[in-house]
Each structure stands twice: as C-alpha cells, then as structure tokens.
Amino acid sequence: MEILWFLLAMGLLLAAVGPYLRRKRGGLRLVAPGSPDAADPADYGFALQEELDIRVPGPDHDLMDALDNVRRTGQWQAASQLLAGTPKEDEVRWQRVQAFAGSAALELAREPGLGAQWLKAWRLEAPKDAGGAQVHAELLAQQMWRRPEGVSDADVRIIAEEARESCRTAALLAPGDPVPYIVELAVARMLHYLEAEYDALWAKILDRAPQHMGAHLAALNYWCAKWHGSREKADAFTHYAAARAPRGSLLAALPLFALYEHVPDVVLVRGFHQSAAVTRAVEGALYAVHSARPDDPMLAHVRHLLLLFLVGGERWAEAMDQVRHVDGYVGALPWSADPDPAASYAVYRALAVAGYEANGGSPATLPH
Question: How far is 326 from 301, CA to CA, in rounded Å?
C-alpha cells in the first residue's frame, strides 16, 4: 500500500504545480506562475478545472437537458421520455441509466430519505416503465458500492439482494435489453457469483449485444485480481474480445483497461511505459480510436484512459490529441476512480501541455 500513498502524494503535489511545469535538458522544472514559459491549458481554450463535468465522459446534450429538467421540476417524465427514445442496444442507453441513477444517488446522499423523490414517484406511477426499473436497479447497485460509514456487511448484502431482484424485474420489462444484465454484473461481484454463474449471466449479455463495450468494461472487473480472477484471467478475457472485434469496434482497446486495473504494483518500474505490454495495449487502443465512428459513445472512455498512458510514456502530441477531444468532461476512468476527478484530470492535462510545449508545440500547432 505504500506505493499508493506515494502516488497520491505525488498527485496532490502535481495538482498544485502542474500548470507551471516545463521540460528542460531531459527533465521537468518549475517556472514562476505568469512566466512566458509556463504551460497554461487555458491558452488552448480548455475548460477551467471547476467547469469540468464529472457526470459523463463526453457531451450528451439530450441527457444534460433531461437531468436539468428532473432536477428543476422534481418530475420523472423527461427521464422516461429520453430512455424510451434511446435504442436498447445502443451503448448510450447504459450511460444514461448510470447518469440518472448517479443523480438520484447524489440527492439521497445530500438528503437521506428525502432526495430522489422523482425516482420513487416514477416507480410508483409507472411500475411497468422499463427505464424507471433500470434506473432503480442501477441506483441500488451504486448504493451497494458506496457503502456509507456505519453500514454493516449484512446491510450491504441486503441491498445487493434487492438490487439483484430489481435487475430481474427490469429484465422482464424489457426483453432483449442488455442493460439489466449489465447492472447485475456489479451485483454479481458483491454476491460472489461462482464462475459458472457469472458465465451464464455474461452469456445473456452476449446474446443481446455481443459488441457492447460498456458491458465488457463492467464484466472485466470480475476477472481482475482484486475481485474473483487474476491478471492472467483479465488479460485472457480482454485479448479474446479484442481479437474477435470487427474493424471499427472499440473492443480492440480492452487490453489497455486490463493493464490499468493491474498497474499500481509496477507503475514506478523504470521503463514501464516503454515496455512491450504497455506499448501493445496503447497501440491497440490507438488503433481502436482511429478506426471507430466519431460519434461512438464509448470513444471518450478510451481516450481518457489513453491520456493517462500517453503522458506516462511522454508521447505528448498524442496525449494532447486526446485532451482536445475529451476536454470538459471527466466522468470516466481513470479520473472517476479518484475522490476529485476534475483535479486528477487537470494534473495530467497540465503535464500533457507542458510536455507538448517543451517539445516545440503550441496552441497554433495543435489541430482543431
């Protein structure tokens, strides 16, 4: 655990000094704030740290409008209409369900027992609405993982069991929709499904949406060493999916996510980012990004994680290319794993800018 504390301390330090980093003679040095040599993300038109949206990985204006409507009116109809108009096989449906559930979870955290009345009304007034059932199931899954202080293991298990039943109710209301089963993947980890049970659940998702990137990312957690698998099992899962992915699929980027999940113990090894394993995973993710549809809703997820590895590998121009595509939104790994996603992202953005400028880049040379 010492390495994690060290990385946390370094992150806090870089958050304070990141905007003033400059590369010189092979290393990074500090320059005074306001110096003409200081790397300033604002010069590129990037969003201020306090303006970064931590709710989503990239822009979804219809979702933002619906969330604002629900928050302003306390009514559920806008959320229901948006999900009803979102195709069940579309990746963005899963993201929208997560966003509505996350909004409800935040309300409940601020006002326990009083928040998210709109979701309660949604379930009572429209019990057969598939969207409402999915959001409710995802809310329970998120509450299961948040685990407020003082909540016992027994209480968490009760929430997990309720979440599983809600997933199954949601599945009955929307035959062919993979989302209820994707929600259950998180529940399965908490309830310690055996591999055979997990495989059966995963088969239901593959029957409905075999190329679903969000589902693969959710499933990956089970196979990681920190849960019920190992680094080898996680690698096998992601490399198998990547090898079978058709051109244009972001599944080719999956091995990078498996690598990220197992990075902490080796991240400080000299040359790590130039190792064959990292290089292959990064190149696979870059290939996926370049061949994917520009409007693929999962594209931002891959770009966010690429930014982390490209900065580590001092591939400044490629890192800046990711920043210019995702800036303004930080609701994705690796930033969402940090207590302050905006600050975590801002550190790496500042480092990308500093490295880019130290190697001759400028706002004028960055493509738009």
Answer: 9
Q: What is d(CA 100, CA 132) in angstroms, rounded to the nearest whole number?
A: 10
Look at residues 199, 214, 176 and name the one whose alpha carbon lies nearest to residue 298.
Answer: 214
At residue 162, does pLDDT exceed 80? Answer: yes
Q: Which runs of consecutive H residues, i.e. helices, occur in 87-127?
A: 91-110, 117-125
Please tell me the distance from the alpha carbon of residue 114 to that of residue 240, in angstroms, as a whole number.
46
Buried b / exposed e across 80-93, counting CB within 10 Å, b at 16+?
Answer: bebbeebebeebbb
Distance of alpha carbon 97 from alpha carbon 139, whole angstroms? 9
For residue 191, the model assigns a pLDDT of 94
Q: How far apart are CA 83 and CA 78, in angstroms?
A: 9
Contacting residues for 121 by C-beta, under 8 A, at least 6 apart: 75, 76
pTM summary value:
0.86
Determine which helix (DSSP H) or strand (DSSP E) holds 320, and give its type and residue range.
Answer: helix 316-326
Nearest 10 degrees: CA dihedral of 73, 79, 84, 90? 160
d(CA 320, CA 236): 31
